[in-house]
């Protein structure tokens, strides 16, 4: 895993160098963003929405019995924006789009398409990695932003039908308890998670050798590694921004 991490860092620098030289095509970024973001939008938002509804359903009666029903919206919004939305959306994105990236790059590797690109004196790492990393970051950013809004709305819906909590009281607690810092950090997480997914999955595909059976192995490995690295990145970000400072 450490060796793979080193390869990811090398590939990231190659992609940055390729981009700074002005070789990156905007059309490639748009195509990859459409492929990664649009195709994963439905499943990502659905998972976050369902998670928000389930949490609201579980805590609504407990808050009501303790007289804290007015804080349901704020509690759910903070939990959703800090952890649930960026985390769940990233996992869904890795499962849906990340594995597809690995399979694409791995197929190009075993069919010698990457070697053909290098024969033309093109940096294959930059050519294949840069648009995917940028597209992954942009896609995850947009998906998480939409998922947070829809998740909060889903919590309001469940709270209204389960304990008859008026939406005005719900959204008032959201307004009082949520701070902009949480939103900024959440969107920062989304950008980092999206870039990590694209980088890891592209590297796993790029390292694939052999035949079609190894494509499946690389795809499985990329999904596992994405989960591990996303959790580690999430912990590091929380330590940097929240340790010793609750708000």
What labels describe this entry?
247 residues; mainly alpha; 8 helices; elongated
Q: What is the topology?
A:
Layout: H1 2-20, H2 26-65, H3 72-110, H4 113-119, H5 124-163, H6 167-177, H7 180-206, H8 212-242
Helix pairs in contact: 1-5, 1-7, 2-3, 2-5, 3-5, 3-6, 3-7, 3-8, 5-7, 7-8
How much of the sequence is in beta strands?
under 5%
How many extended strands?
0
**Helical percentage:** over 70%
First-last Cα distance: 34 Å
Uncertain runs with pLDDT below 50, 5 residues or more? none
Main beta sheet strand tally, sense and closure? none
Q: Helix- and strand-based class?
A: mainly alpha
Q: Supply the number of helical segments.
A: 8
Q: What sort of overall outline do the alpha carbons produce when their principal axes are compared?
A: elongated
Number of domains: 1
Arithmetic mean of pLDDT:
89
Order of helices and strands: HHHHHHHH
Q: Please state the CA-atom Rg, rounded to the nearest Å.
A: 20 Å
Q: Can you tell me about this structure?
A:
This protein is elongated. 87% of the residues lie in helices and 0% in strands. The protein contains eight helices and no strands. The model has no long low-confidence stretch (mean pLDDT 89). Helix 1 (2-20) packs across helix 7 (180-206) and helix 2 (26-65) runs antiparallel to helix 3. With 247 residues, it is mainly alpha-helical. It has one domain (24-242).
What's this model, at a glance?
With 247 residues, the protein is an all-alpha fold. It has helices at 2-20, 26-65, 72-110, 113-119, 124-163, 167-177, 180-206, 212-242. It has one domain (24-242).
């Amino acid at each position: 895993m450490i060796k793979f991490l080193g390869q990811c860092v090398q590939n990231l620098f190659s992609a940055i160098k390729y981009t700074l030289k002005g070789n990156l095509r905007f059309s490639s970024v748009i195509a990859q963003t459409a492929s990664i973001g649009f195709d994963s939008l439905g499943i990502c938002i659905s998972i976050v929405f369902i998670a928000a509804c389930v949490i609201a359903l579980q805590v609504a009666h407990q808050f009501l019995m303790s007289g804290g029903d007015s804080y349901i919206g704020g509690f759910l919004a903070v939990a959703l924006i800090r952890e649930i939305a960026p985390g769940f959306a990233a996992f869904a994105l890795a499962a849906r789009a990340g594995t597809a990236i690995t399979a694409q790059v791995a197929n190009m590797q075993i069919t010698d398409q990457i070697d053909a690109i290098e024969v033309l004196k093109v940096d294959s790492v930059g050519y294949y990695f840069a648009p995917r990393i940028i597209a992954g970051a942009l896609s995850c950013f947009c998906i998480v932003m939409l998922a947070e809004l829809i998740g909060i709305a889903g919590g309001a819906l469940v709270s209204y039908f389960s304990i008859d909590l008026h939406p005005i009281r719900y959204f008032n607690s959201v307004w009082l308890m949520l701070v902009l810092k949480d939103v900024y950090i959440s969107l920062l997480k989304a950008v980092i998670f999206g870039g990590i997914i694209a980088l890891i999955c592209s590297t796993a595909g790029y390292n694939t050798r052999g035949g079609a059976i190894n494509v499946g192995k690389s795809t499985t490995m990329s999904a596992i590694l994405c989960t591990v690295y996303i959790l580690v990145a999430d912990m590091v970000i929380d330590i940097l921004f929240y340790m010793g400072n609750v708000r």
